[in-house]
User: Fold this.
Amino acid sequence: MGPDDYTVGWICAVDPEYVAAIALLDEEHDPVDGSQNDNNTYTLGRIGKHNVAITLLPDGEYGTDSAASAARDMVHSFPNIRLGLMVGVGGGAPSTEHDIRLGDIVVSSPGGDKGGVLQYDFGKTIQEQSFRQTRFLNQPPTALRAAVGGLRVHYQLNGHPLDQMINNVLTKRTRLRKDYARPHPDSDTLYRPQFVHPESEGICIEACGKDPARLIIRGKRREDEDNPAIHYGLIASGNTLMKDALIRDRLVKERKVLCFEMEAAG
Assistant:
């Protein structure tokens, strides 16, 4: 395989995302010589019929600028990249309209005047008016949007195999089970947005407790519902780590945001 054979680029922001990406490859390929102007390191492989180049942002670097640099360097080494993907962990934004839970998947999908990703911390402040976001990314490529539409219909009719695929990986790579198996549903605790979480590096439930007055109680998913569920819509991206539930819920209400992350807008 040579650099010209790779058509999909996959960027990960942190180590666990990179580990998960590599584990899902159907086969790994040997490294190839890239451009001298490329600062990335890659894991190469195949998923289905697609040859994929996967890279990780430099240690300790996050945000849109770092992601943009990684994407720029990637196309120097792999000139036939047709699709660029940012795949990783995001902060879900559950609402009455979208029952987003721990372990669910959010797929960026355009709608109305929105391209699928909103850079929510880029905009303008006007006297006596609220902050206005002014930057949306362009829509994803037509081929990618067509594929998403086809998969969405297929999954509505038949369900999806994601849970089984993950279990197959964990069966083959037993050392990943401890850190990469899906958490127990009891750990998916949603607090009311007015509750202020204490500063703690420990487990949220242990630090915040499970007082019902602090919680939004959600029942178990039905057997006929996908679990994990896949949600399609707007992803909010920016250089700010979103840890304010009130601001989160305001953006959910105003912009129909489904989740927050820190690299896709790059």
